[in-house]
Design brief:
By secondary structure, this protein is mostly helical. Helices cover 50% and strands 0% of the residues. It has two helices and no strands. The two termini are 24 Å apart.
Length: 66
């Protein structure tokens, strides 16, 4: 199996387990002070913006993300 296939499988399994858990949503998001080593300023700011949007409007069951 290719690296891309394995990664896809891991995400599918992860999301299927998360969907059925009673985990508080806040624990699913990264910390505000998280700094990724190779992320540029645009990526860092965009990442924080997208996280805020998902916190305001979390995905529902059967939502599709592109």
């Amino acid at each position: 199996m290719t690296k891309k296939g394995i990664t896809s499988l891991v995400f599918i399994l992860l999301f299927s387990f998360c969907r059925h858990s009673n985990t508080p949503l806040e624990s699913l998001y990264p910390r505000q002070d998280l700094m990724l080593e190779y992320q540029d300023d645009w990526g860092r700011n965009n990442y924080k913006k997208i996280i805020k949007e998902f916190k305001k409007n979390p995905l529902e069951f059967d939502d599709i993300v592109f």
